[in-house]
TrEMBL record, chains A, B:
GO terms for cellular component: proteasome core complex. Transmembrane segments: none annotated. The lineage of its organism: Bacteria, Bacillati, Cyanobacteriota, Cyanophyceae, Acaryochloridales. GO terms for biological process: proteolysis involved in protein catabolic process. It holds the Pfam family Proteasome. This is Peptidase.
Length: 263, 263
């Protein structure tokens, strides 16, 4: 699995990804999943990838080929982030179409997803999630983060704390904790972690860091966080047990279309 | 969805469940998913259910029918928790066998899972997870909690903090926070929450509570927890950005069986 996370706030953009790839539990390797296509001073474009590695790699190859060939439409020339995300989505559709029939024959999952974040001069910053089908979602003030891959373990920490007006420096810390929580709960998500922080209207990546396995700062953050959680638990009010509760026989039973009801 | 959680520690057992059932987003209702079959003084048996509601309900009906008919083999007579979990598993197999062929015709999910926890005089406490196929897992000192249903959102908080020697009162708080995190991140998991705490060798449920929507204690706990997380964030060391990182071109690329690699 992968876990990639993008956060868009009023003051900037954070993009983060792990680097573990697995083709079954006995074939685990390291692949970069966060790619910087920025042209400093003019545009910042960062792409994260999750899903079928052969497809995401080929999409990136096509993107790089267009850049190298100095084609009319490339990440260096497209006029705005909307065109950028449509362009990446169309590359994804092109590669998927080539391979899907063959993968389907053997029931191999061809799904993959992309995060595309950045800012092009003349616009505000944008963050998009591109689905396997090439359509895309945009981060908004109400939902300022987008995730791909193994998204669930790292979501509660963001749901509890992150807002559109969170300073981008704080958002970078949230991102690191969200990745660390995911690594802790799912062994198929693992370091090195790639983390990028971008300040709105700076038009260059402000900070980029890679955290390798056993990185002292990562160890320090995890220890700090777990100690903080334990302290918070210790200070948490005791459960007030004395309250009404329904016995099994008094539970409300409503008619429900049983055949499809799941709980 | 459902989220049910069982925790087995040296000092006791905690079982917890939400009560939201959905058959599609436009058919959401409330069903109890935590059932107490204890015989105070002699045995404590608590069952939680997740999955296809028609099947889990019918399994409980058969269990209750055996109790009412005072059959030789019932939850009141089985000599140990191992026999109890085999018995519940066999009921599940019986009900599944009846319905599976019909559900399969319309591609309806027949999967369901059970948690069975408790203690019978003469034994230590046990906690089991029964799979849809009727086989089962046991909680152990290394992995003292078992989850069914929507398990991921509530797992990081347990992975970070819970151990086999955690006092059972504290484990009950963890359980409540784990459920609350899940509710916060997945709207199909919802109150009332059912929570049971059992102390080893007491042979009766020590505490049971139901937390309805807007329960003042639940609101207090959530506020406290989110404030604690925010404070912990504020105190968290700033990211040390100055470190080596690999550029895209220097990333290690190993051969991988591309057709099946997912990241």
């Amino acid at each position: 699995m992968t876990y990639c996370l993008g956060i868009l706030t009023t003051s900037g953009l954070v993009m983060a990804a792990d680097s573990r790839t697995n083709a079954g539990v006995d074939y685990i390797s390291t692949y970069q999943k966060l790619f910087d296509f920025s042209v400093p001073g003019e545009r910042v474009i960062v792409i994260c990838t999750a899903g079928n590695l052969s497809i995401t790699q080929e999409v990136l190859t096509l993107i790089r080929r267009d850049l190298k060939g100095q084609l009319e439409h490339s990440l260096n020339t497209l006029p705005n982030m909307y065109e950028v995300v449509r362009y990446v989505g169309s590359k994804l559709r092109e590669v998927s179409d080539t391979h899907r029939p063959w993968l389907s024959k053997d029931n191999i999952d061809h799904q993959c997803t992309f995060l595309v974040g950045g800012q092009i001069r003349g616009e505000e910053p944008f963050l998009y999630l591109i689905y396997s089908q090439g359509n895309f979602l945009q981060a908004t003030p109400e939902t300022p983060f987008l995730q791909i891959g193994e998204t669930k373990y790292g979501k509660p920490i963001l749901d509890r704390t992150l807002r559109f007006d969170t300073p981008v420096d704080a958002a970078a810390k949230y991102a690191l904790l969200s990745l660390d929580s995911t690594m802790k709960s799912n062994i198929s998500v693992g370091p090195p972690l790639d983390l990028i922080m971008y300040r709105t209207n700076s038009f260059e990546i402000g900070h980029r860091a890679e955290f390798v396995l056993g990185d002292p700062f990562l160890v320090k953050v995890r220890k700090f966080w777990e100690a903080s959680l334990r302290r918070a638990f210790e200070e948490m009010p005791d459960i007030e047990w004395n309250r009404s509760h329904s016995s099994p026989s008094s539970s409300l039973v409503l008619p429900v279309p049983d055949a499809i009801a799941t709980d």
